[in-house]
Each structure stands twice: as C-alpha cells, then as structure tokens.
Amino acid sequence: MRTALVVLRKDLRMEMRTWETVPAMVLLALVTFVIFHFGLNRDTIAGQEAAGVLTATLLFAAMLGVNRLFVAEREQGGFDAFLLAPVDRSAMLVAKAAGLFIFLTALEVIAIPAFKLFLLGPSLGPVLPGLILILVLANVGLAVIGTLVSAIAVHTRARDLIGPVIGLPLLIPALIATARAAGPLFNAGHVSGAPPGKWLAILALYDLVFALLAYAVFDFLLED
Amino acid sequence: MLAAMPPAIELRGLARYFGERTALHDVSLQVPDGATLAVLGRNGAGKSTLLRILAALLRPHAGEVLVFGESLPRRAFAVRGRLGLLAHEPLLYRELTGRENLEYHAALHRVDRGRVDEVLAAVQMERRADEPVRLLSRGMIQRLAVCRAVLHDPALLLLDEPRANLDPAASALVEPLIGRPAGRTRVLTSHDPRAALAEADLVLALKDGRVAYAGEPAGFDDARLQELYA
Amino acid sequence: MHTTYGKGLRGLSIAAIVTIGAALALAFFYAPLDANQGFIQKIFYIHVPLAIVTLCGFIFGALMAVQYLRTGDRRWDMRSYVAIHMALIFGIVGLITGSIWAKASWGHWWVWNEPTLVSYLIVLLLFCTYQPLRFSIEDPERQSRYASVFAIVAGAFVPLNFIAVRLAQQYVHPRVLTLTGGNLPGSMLLTFLVSLLGISLLYATLWKYEMAAKNARSQVRRLRRTLLGEDTMRPVGRSAAPS
User: Fold this and answer.
1) Which of B164, C23, C125, C157 has its Cβ near the most Cβ atoms within 10 Å?
2) Looking only at Cα atoms, what is the longest distance across chain C?
3) What is the value of pTM for the model shown?
4) Which residues contact B213 (CB under 8 A, 6 or more apart)?
5) Contact call for C165 and A166, based on CB within 8 A
6) Which of A90, A93, A137, A170 to mutate to test the interface with C (most CBs of C within 10 A)?
7) Are residues C145 and A152 in contact, defined by beta-carbon separation less than 8 angstroms?
8) In percent, how much of chain A has pLDDT > 70?
9) CA-nearest residue of chain B to C239?
10) Does the beta-carbon distance from C236 to B18 stay under 8 Å?
11) How big is chain C by its Cα radius of gyration, in Å?
C-alpha cells in the first residue's frame, strides 16, 4: 500500500498547511461539552450518562471532519490526478480512512482531558487503557463509514448535508457499542478498567464488516 | 514513418452520452504512432469528452477505443502510465507548492524525484517552485501543469488547449516538452484552429458530437472551417 | 431490452387480493380475541408482515444493486430503485401500524424497549435518505452507481443494526416471534402466515406494476428518439428515478 502512504502523506501535509479540519473538530467537541453542561444542568456526570455524552460528542465532531475529506480532491482535480496514475484505486480509501483516523485521534487527545476537566466525575487514570482500546475500535468504524459517506456526498449537490444524514444512522450500532462499552468504565469507584467484552466484539465486528464492504464498493465511487 | 507499427489510437464507432445529451456519436479514426491529431470544433462539440475518454477517465458507451493496442476501459491499467493529460484544470493542489505537487505526482507514477528538478528547470520555474500554487499567476500554473503532464515521460500526450494562459516566451519554453519536437503521439485541441492545423498531421472536426471531417489538414480548407464554427 | 413486466400481472393481482381478503377474514372471524388488548391487537397481523416484507424488500433492493454494479445494465438499477422505494412506503405504513400495536400492547404510541421496533425505525431513517441522495446527483449514470453503493451498504446494515439494538435493549415483554420459531397458538399462526403471504403478494404486484409502467415509459421514449430523431426529445428534468 505504498500508494496509500503517498496519498496520506499528501493529505497530512495539506492539513498541516491549512489546519482546516482538526481545529474545527476540537472546537466543536469543546463547545458541545459546554452545551451538555448547561443542557443537563450538571457539574459532573458519571457512568452510562457520561459515556453517552462523550460518544455523541465524538460522533458529531467526526461528522464535521467528514465533510472536508474529499472536497479538495473534487474541487482541485485531485480525483483526476489520482485516476490518471497507474495505481490501485482502493489505495485512496485506505489513505483517506487512515487520515480521518489520525484526525480523530488528534481530536481525542485534546477532547478526553477536556472531558475530564469539564464534565467527568470519576477519575480517568485507571480506566485509560480500556478507554483507549474502545476509542481505537470506534475510530476505525468512524473512519471507514466517514470515508465512504464522504465519497458519496462529495459528488452530490447538498454535499454538507448528505454526509451526516446518511452517516449518522449507519453509525448507530457503533455508537451503541461504544457507549455501552465505555459506560462501566465511567462508574465511580470502578477500578478494574476492563471494558465489557461483548460490546468490544460487536464494535470489532462492525468495523470488519464495513471495512470489507467499503473496500469492495469504493472503486465504483471513483469512476466517472 | 507509417510502417508496420500498430496505430497509437484507434476509434471505432465511439459514442458517449450524458443522460439524454449526446456528447459523441459514431466517431471512428486512426492515429498513427508519432502523429499529431488536431481536434477542432465549437465549445461543447465533444472535444474535451474525447480527450477524457482517451485518458481513460470516462468510459465509452458504445464502440471501441484502442490505445497502443489496448482496449479501454478494460485494459486501462496497462496504458495509464503511458498517457499524459493536460486538462482544463491544472490538477494541482493550491495550498501545496509546485514542487510538492510535482513530487506527489512523481510518487504516484513511480518516477524518480530527480525528474521533478529536470522539468522545473526546463520551464524555468525552479525559483518559484517552492511557493504555494495559489500565489502563482495563471501562466506559471499552466507551466507547472505542463510539468505534471510530462513528468512520467508519456508516449501519448493529450493536450486540451495547451497554450492557454501562456505568453510567447512561456509558450516557447514548453514547446520542447509538448510540441512537435517532443516526438510523441499527440492529440490536441485549441481555440485557435489555424494554429492547431499548422502543426497537425491529422484533423478531426467535430460538430455536435459527430464527425464533420477526418483526414489530412490539406483537405480541411477555409470553407469547411467556416462551416464548422458557424 | 424487450422484457415487459405486464405478463402475469393480472394473475398476481388477483392472487394478492384474494389472499389479503382471506387474511382479513381470518383475522376478524377466526383468530382469537386477545383478552388483555382487545380487538386492536389484531393490527399485529398487518404490522409484522409489513415489517418483514419491508426488510426483505430492502435486501432485494441491495441484491439487485449488486447485479447492477456487476453488469452495468440499467434495468437492474430500475428494479433496485422500485424495490427500495416500494419497501419504504410499506415500511412507513408498517411503522404506523407498529405504533398502533405499541399503544394497544403497552399503552404508549412509542416504546423504546421493543428492540425490533427501534431498529426498524433506524433502518427506515436510513432508507429515507435514498431518494434525496438520488435526486441530488444529476448525472444519471453516476446516480445509479452511487445509489447502488448506498443500497448495498444499507442492506448490509440491516442485520448488523438488529443485532446491536437487540443486545442493547432490556426488553421486559415476552417476544412474540423468536428466531427459534413462533410461540403462537395454531389459529393465530395460520392467520399470521396467510397475512404474510398476502402482503408479500401485494408487494410483488405493486413492484411489477410500477416496473411495467416505468419500462413502458422508457421504451416509448426510446422509440420516439429513434423514429423522430433526437432533436424532438425534450430534455428530461432532474429526477430521483432512473429512466
């Protein structure tokens, strides 16, 4: 997947040049935490409630990132340039999904501490490894679906709307699994730090199925 | 010159539609290896569509397209590396520098990075190559686009209005890369039909997607020219 | 190129009407009256078959979309489109009847602890985006391609979604239909099966009917273009439907 690395490097370079995506995602996440504070009228939250708030926030921030993913390709001829090259087409899927995964990780590096600071009651330290595992799996799902949906949306007229509108229902199983896996971790006094296996398995299954599916259909989205 | 080599391009009954609109209909043609084909016609006559089909970016809806003996789109992967397209859009990312853009394309085409310096020098863009593309003038962008098109030393050049935005000095700079001296098989369109005719071995005139004339430039006189653009 | 869908349409329609009539008769007169919920419980005989046919319709749509991507034959895309949009209509009626059943069974117009109903809602929300998606892509070939990709992804989503929601919900009420087979008494089972057959036939009939109409329209256009020349064709406006 040498080609995928080439495209990924180009995308990361573009992001570091323009800072279009990650700062917006981070800001949205932070503002959403504030909104939840006022909406729920609570100083701290814990347990399943906290997991739900965190998951929903990450989901919405991801949808924001998704919108920008293919726009440069569409508007500046990136698709043509890629299609002219003697490369495997699915490399673009891998590159874009990897890029989105990296953006989401960058988002979480800032958002999780912010979440602890603003909203989370119980301590984060002991459950951090478990939480990281959940987030890695969740990010894969978000990245795959986000890339797929963004590739579909970029050629439509209502570009910014279609992406989230299709993506969010598709992500509901991932949302359920992520939130339910994280719920026990945020319970006050919970020390063992291992997320429930059932939900991790569902998340992994979801990731696998949609990754394979996306790989199979992506070529059809690139042709003219 | 036109020995036993197979033609570089062969079209038989090519057709392409966009919904209800016919972009190309029943286009047949042969272009020998090393020849220059000028495609003439009004805006919307199908010139750009034809180029995109030859570049394997669009698939034909009917008929056959053979490039270097390979049928498109089925065998597109076999010829992609030998095609170079200079399109309406420069296909460059505005936020990256010229050099970064070219290195990206070089990596995609598996071309040695030294080649990037080579083409930049050929069009005299070395000094401005490290500025973001959005800061460059249209003429400079066009020069970079030419670099991009010839980076991988393609055997077939597909040139859509190659001299757009180029002043005479710049035009002279790109001539060895995309003009007759390059010695490649070329398909070019131009808004200036007479200039295109002057450097063509073959002419294809399109009117509403259909062939109005296909043959030697000598047979394409002024009367036909008037009729085409009427 | 010359398939017509009108063949067998009359027979199919008659079969559908007869079966539905039989199902209604059975529901009203044969099936037992529920002690707790009363007469309104009988909406079950309409709701569940509608839901089943809807989901099968979406999956058929996905399979036909696969065929379109494999062959490039636009007719598969038309079949897929009709299957999905017909299933969506059945689905919305199914959702409404589901709500009525919820009211009858648990006293509320909507319940979260019935996982099938909830995942059904999510699937419907997803497929509601199918037509807007089609409408927002102008190039017909791209429209068909992207719609097919969507149909396949959404079709794969249906079972995953059901599993996830099922596991997530704590359900209090006993399941009426389980994967191991129904725990319905004989008379209810018969009524249910007849109703399922009737609604399936209705779906097939309506699908065939719409395919026949669309097919005829597109063949007429093609004839006009051939006979009268292309200039007489009025440009087709943007549409969500393949033509």
Assistant:
1) C157
2) 69
3) 0.88
4) B203, B204, B205, B219, B220, B224, B228
5) no
6) A170
7) no
8) 97
9) B19
10) no
11) 20
